Amino acid sequence: MPDPAHIIAGHKAALSNPHVSEEAKERARKYLKEHGSESHYTTGTTRGQKADADDAGELREEGFGTKNQFEDNESQAKNLGNVRGGYKAAMHNPKVSQKGRRHAKELLEEVDDESK
Q1: What is the distance between the terminal CA atoms of the chain, rounded to a whole angstrom?
Q2: Fewer beta carbons within 10 Å, N or C terminal of the chain?
Q3: Rounded CA gap, 12 and 29, in Å?
Q4: Using 50, 70 and 90 to split pLDDT, how confident is the model at 81?
Q5: How far apart are CA 56 and CA 74, in angstroms?
Q6: Pick from 12, 32, 14: which is nearest to 23 by CA?
Q7: Separation between Cα atoms, residue 87 and residue 53, nearest integer Å
Q8: Contacting residues for 66 by C-beta, under 8 A, at least 6 apart
Q9: Over the stretch 6-65, which tens digit does the pLDDT of each residue have?
Q10: What ranges does the record list as Basic and acidic residues composition bias?
Q11: Spatial distance between the Cα atoms of 81 and 44, rounded to a whole number of angstroms
């Protein structure tokens, strides 16, 4: 079942999109009037931002300080799991050269060592 917050967001977007017909905008207005234009639900984006903030705090608690190369770039610190996943994917991707796989393995080991 579609997320109610996404449905509301879609109708709001339709109202502000100059490429949407007046007929479609009227349907969007009607839907928002009947169902409310505000929602107590959160969209995936909001959940993602909260998760990023939680992850950053958790990384700091685990000892990731300014000495860590990933802490210098806050977005990388927040997404350490994505960084690790990228290295793992490169190690198992048949289109990546052997040299690239070795390099990914070295970087993954470095990341794992720094997270201890």
Answers
A1: 41
A2: N
A3: 8
A4: confident
A5: 8
A6: 14
A7: 23
A8: 72
A9: 888 888 889 889 999 999 999 999 988 888 766 554 444 444 444 555 555 665 665 554
A10: 49-64
A11: 18
Q: Which two tokens stand for residue 103?
A: 């390099």
Residue the block writes with tokens 């799991």: 81
Instruction: Classify the phi-psi angles of 36: left when phi > 0, otherwise alpha if psi is within -120 to 50, otherwise beta.
Output: left
- C-alpha dihedral (60, 52, 42, 16), degrees to nearest 10: 140
* Interval 86-99: pLDDT, tens: 999 999 999 999 99
- Give the mean model confidence (pLDDT) for residues 70-78: 54
How far is Cα 87 from Cα 108, in angstroms, rounded to an integer?
6
pTM passes above 0.85 = no
